[in-house]
Amino acid sequence: MTRVLVVDAANVVGSRPDGWWKDRAGAARRLHEQLLVADTSYDEIVLVLEGAAKGGAKAGQDGHVLTVHAPRDGDATIVERARLAAQRGSEVTVVTADRYLRARVEGVGARAMGPSWLLDQLA
Fold it and tell me: What angle do CA 81, 118, 93 make, to 5 degrees?
């Protein structure tokens, strides 16, 4: 079974008070770089970027990381990516701190974990 990790970049970046708000694109780039070299058990990592953060990493496949630029709000894109992966029979985990989004992705068959869970794995 394929394991897919969908990352709500805004929530993960926003969970660390490291000045990300001064450079959203830079914060997104750093997260993207961390995911590229992370030693995880996931076959595919989907990084969803929205707004100014889209300037931090180009959309497309880069190794096992697929960067997606949300056309509108990131939440709808995250739910759609989780739904598609679950329909393919993948085991899907979504990383977000947003309670409403967590309920939505669990409704399409994904499990939800908080940003600290992911950050612990990237450390």
Answer: 30
C-beta of residue 119 within 8 angstroms of C-beta of residue 12: yes
Which secondary structure element, helix H or strand E, spans residue 43, and what is its range? none
Q: How far is CA 90 from CA 6, 82, 103, in A?
A: 12, 9, 19
- Spatial neighbors of 39 by CB under 8 A, at least 6 apart, are none
**Is the Cβ–Cβ distance between 12 and 45 less than 8 Å?**
no
CATH topology for the 3-122 domain: Rossmann fold (3.40.50)
Q: What is the pLDDT along the chain (123 residues), one digit of tens a residue?
A: 899 999 999 999 998 888 888 999 999 999 999 999 999 999 999 999 999 999 999 999 999 999 999 998 899 999 999 999 999 999 999 999 999 999 999 999 999 999 999 999 988
pTM: 0.96
Nearest to 47 by CA among 78, 24, 16, 73: 78
